[in-house]
Every structure is written in structure tokens, then in C-alpha cells.
Amino acid sequence: MSVGPHRVVPLVNVRWLHFTPTNSSWLNLVERWFAELTRKLLQRSAHRNVVALEKDLKNWAKNWNNDPKPFVWRKTADEILDSLRRYCTTISDSGH
Fold this sequence. Notes:
Elements: H1 26-42, H2 50-66, H3 77-92
């Protein structure tokens, strides 16, 4: 099955979004979900075709939905901004 940019193939059916942290957008949760999907399923998997990939994605999402776990933020916004500020300073002073 060829999937071009003009065609949408639904791969995952995520039904429930239980909690959106204050001062955060729902997009952050979506980004975290795709990061988990990538890290726990896609990085070390090999699929011989789209059907096999789709089957694995649906099973992973089903298990995710059957056993949901809250995402726990490890850093405060200030800690993240400080880290970003240090990174920007480092790349600005790198001579590139």
C-alpha cells in the first residue's frame, strides 16, 4: 500500500485525554505521546509492510489506553528556560 502526502491513513485511535496541566497546551501531551511511541515501539522495530506497522501501532495504542499512566513533569518551567538560555548562549558563542 502506497501512502502519498495527499492521503490520510488513520493508524491510531486515542480516545481519552484526562488531564491537561495548567499553563500547558494539549499539544505538549500529544508530543509526549508520540515521543513515547517512538521510544518504546518504533526505534527498535522493523516492519516488512504497512499492514504489519499498522497492526503494531494499533496494539500499542490499545495497551496504552488500557493501562494509562500520568506524565510526571521532572523540571519546573524556570529550570527548562534556564537550560534553554544556557544552550542558546553556547551555540551563539560557538563561532559558527
